[in-house]
Amino acid sequence: MEKVLIAEDDLKLQNFLRIRWEKFKDTFEAIFVNNGEEAINVLKQKYISLVITDIMMPKVDGMALLGYINNKHPHIPCIVMTAYPPQGLGKKHTDDNLFRLFQKPFQIDELTEAVLNAFEQDIPDGTLKGISVPSFLQMIQLEEKTCLFEVSSPGKEKGFFYFKDGIPYDAVYGNLKGEEAAFKIIVMEKAEIRFRNLPRKKIAKRINTELAGLIMEATRRKDDYGG
Amino acid sequence: MNDNETKMFAGRITVIVDSEIKSIIPGFIKEWKDDVNTMRHAVDLGDYETIRSISHRMKGTGATCGFDALTDLGTDLLACTKRMNNHAIRKVLDLLSSYLEKVNIVYQ
Fold this sequence. Notes:
- The complex is a heterodimer of chains A (227) and B (108).
- Chain A is an alpha/beta fold and 227 residues long.
- Chain A has helices spanning 11-20, 36-45, 62-72, 91-94, 108-120, 133-142, 178-186, 211-225, and strands at residues 2-7, 28-33, 50-54, 78-82, 99-103, 147-152, 159-164, 167-173, 176-177, 192-196.
- Chain A has a five-stranded parallel β-sheet, with helices on both faces.
- With 108 residues, chain B is mostly helical.
- Chain B has a domain at 44-108.
- In chain B, helix 2 packs antiparallel against helix 5, helix 3 (48-62) packs antiparallel against helix 4 and helix 4 (68-82) runs antiparallel to helix 5 (86-102).
- Chain B is elongated and about 40 Å long.
- In chain B, 35% of the residues are buried.
- At the A-B interface, helix 1 of A face helix 3 of B.
């Protein structure tokens, strides 16, 4: 039996999904939790086939939950429900095979189809990458978050990306700063993700390019020079 | 919400909802009415975070359950809350109250 973990703080939406998915009870079990903290506790105890999460939730939000899944369970497919329209950067720039953004409000039949498709997804060995850095950055922008986003990858420097109200503000990667650091961070693979406390000191705005432009330039450089 | 949409709530509004979710809809309507009252109180206190949080949920859930106007009004509320425009927030809350009082639900 497949198990779908749904992290959603809106009890109305929980009830709605519970009723609409009653007819699929022989195909999958839907487990509902109210926030990212409860979701992480379930993930520590049960095998989960698919996670569906909202972004804005109390205690531990969806972004931090996705960071945890990316670091500890990169094989679990994730569907993220966001209130904002995803900006289609395309597969070339996001390179995720287990991650999908879904805009709220949604058609229940479309979400159900995505759930059922996720069970049938056949990912070739060795291609699992978790959630890509560009996908995280895109979510931060969509949700207009202010955060310090840490990215680490085996054998590489740690990268830090600072966002203010969803706008890329500054990045640091080793000795690089601003957009040059951002280009390096964006293309990091098999990256571990963490959300850090905001620094107390004022951060200078050293990034003046929009996120989509940064991602496209980082991808172009990687294609041309191998990163 | 423009003038035409405002006039829309002068009459009765019919919404068609899947009969599969009939059992939960009366409770939803009551909770949305409670949410409007909570937001009225919050605007008096200048508690924009409460209004933002409730209207965000309303925007996401309304049309998913078949109530498209709740998604539209939730979107308007979020915009007014961002501008901290109490007058506009109260105006949208009046529209929400009117909608929730007048909505006629047909299950099929």
